[in-house]
């Protein structure tokens, strides 16, 4: 039987709900989400449960990380269904503020991250994005004061930005990255997958398949530049409009020319129709 799960919407209610955990000296893990939860999110929740005594899941569709041309208004929102899914996962608390709580009248402070936030990947195509992410994550960390925060590796550049944010601002939270959860055909789970038509969904696994092929070739000693050029051509033939497909240093996200340059992460962003998909893979 599912637990009766508390959902709080105000800062005062959040403080009241967290107080008993703090009074007992219990550790707290936070899983930040924008809702529309899928199996990938639930995997993060289960990992958070292994990392701390208590698990808090935040659900907030953050307007500051969407550009005017992006899908903020249509982004799926289904709080009741999300809470129902979390109730079976031993979650202790859902923090679900609205925009007026997160960005009240007079709000005038924003974080401008650098380092991995300026790697020329997502930031090149969504220059507003990481400022919005960094600001909302810093707020969530300040509100919940978690000991651990769990993020998925599918948003790899975001994971590196948040890790740098926590370290640079001494936020006293351990940021943990979890491997990407995939469908059986390799497609990375994403709330935006529901936007794909049936025909697009059938083609979408090529994104992961091409990355996996690149990883094999680079590991075998093939020149990185030629491998990545071939990947772009292959994705284009498969009907993707490619924003980037890159080989980068796995920690700094700096460009790499050979395997000698350090651990390598392959990253891709491409559109199928109107749906933008991202993925990444270690070499």
Automatic annotation (TrEMBL):
Quote the protein name from its UniProt record. Answer: Pantothenate synthetase
Single GO molecular function = pantoate-beta-alanine ligase activity
Quaternary structure note: Homodimer.
At the top level, the lineage of the source is: Bacteria
* Cytoplasm found in the keyword field: yes
Record keyword ATP-binding present: yes
Q: Which gene encodes it?
A: panC
Q: Which residues bind beta-alanine?
A: 65
Misc: The reaction proceeds by a bi uni uni bi ping pong mechanism.
For this record, the Gene Ontology CC terms, alphabetical, are: cytosol
Q: Where does this protein hold (R)-pantoate?
A: 65, 158
Chemical reaction(s) catalysed: (R)-pantoate + beta-alanine + ATP = (R)-pantothenate + AMP + diphosphate + H(+)
């Amino acid at each position: 039987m599912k637990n009766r799960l508390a959902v709080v919407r105000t800062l005062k209610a959040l403080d009241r709900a967290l107080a008993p955990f703090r009074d007992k000296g219990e550790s707290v893990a936070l899983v930040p989400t924008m809702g529309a939860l899928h199996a990938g999110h639930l995997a993060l929740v289960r990992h958070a449960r292994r990392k701390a005594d208590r698990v808090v899941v935040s659900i907030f569709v953050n307007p500051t990380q969407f550009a005017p041309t992006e899908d903020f208004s249509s982004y799926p929102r289904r709080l009741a269904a999300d809470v129902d899914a979390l109730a079976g996962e031993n979650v202790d608390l859902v923090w679900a503020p609205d925009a007026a709580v997160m960005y009240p009248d007079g709000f005038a402070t924003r974080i401008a991250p650098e380092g991995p936030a300026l790697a020329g990947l997502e930031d090149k195509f969504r220059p507003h994005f990481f400022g919005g992410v960094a600001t909302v994550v810093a707020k969530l960390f300040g509100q919940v004061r978690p000991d651990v925060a769990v993020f998925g590796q599918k948003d790899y550049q975001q994971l590196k930005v948040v890790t740098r944010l926590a370290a640079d601002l001494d936020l006293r939270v351990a940021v943990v990255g979890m491997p990407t959860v995939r469908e059986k055909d390799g497609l990375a789970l994403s709330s935006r997958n529901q936007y794909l038509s049936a025909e697009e969904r059938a083609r979408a696994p090529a994104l992961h398949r091409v990355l996996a092929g690149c990883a094999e070739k680079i590991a075998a000693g093939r020149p990185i530049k030629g491998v990545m050029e071939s990947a772009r051509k292959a994705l284009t033939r498969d009907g993707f409009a490619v924003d980037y497909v890159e080989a980068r240093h796995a920690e700094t996200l700096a460009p790499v020319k050979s395997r000698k340059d350090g651990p390598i992460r392959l990253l891709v962003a491409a559109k199928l129709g109107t749906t933008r998909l991202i993925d990444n893979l270690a070499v």
